[in-house]
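Entry 14. Structure prediction run on the chain below.
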Amino acid sequence: MNKENAKIFEQDLNNKNKSSGTVFAVHLLMNKICSMPDKQLMQNIINKHLGETDCFCYDEKTAGFAVKKYSVNFEKDNGNIPPMLMITECSEIKKPVMDEISASQLWDCPDGSEILKNCRYQVIATDMLASGLYYKGRAEMLVLITLRLLLNYIRPALPWFLKRQKKCFQGKIL
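Output returned:
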């Protein structure tokens, strides 16, 4: 693109979003709809990498696992609570996954624009009650294990990205 045709983006620098304590989300983009993996298969994979878990919900729309290897102390509730992994059904993308400014930052994903245009479905994995975890444990729990599960057992998987970090990966497992 030459300089005359380059789009200029303006960022609202007055928007001071606090990110501390937020839920992390991984979006696995799909070009075809897929079904939720079997509950026992999911739990076996997560247990293999993270130790014992409790599956506290599972149906065609959502799967949730409490990971006992980690715990977060909530002083207000006077107790330690295991963080949770939540995995959604594969669903149609109803609104853009990224805004234009974020999409313009996909330097490490050469086909970023095409992927965002052509992938009409997504599976989302999030962590809940995990903001108090040490960052390495949180990354291991959400990104590495969840992506191993998703990328190996949900097909046809295309790229995935970390929403807050605006990082896109082409089907690689870390």
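The first strand starts at residue 25 and ends at 30.
Filed with the rest of this week's runs.
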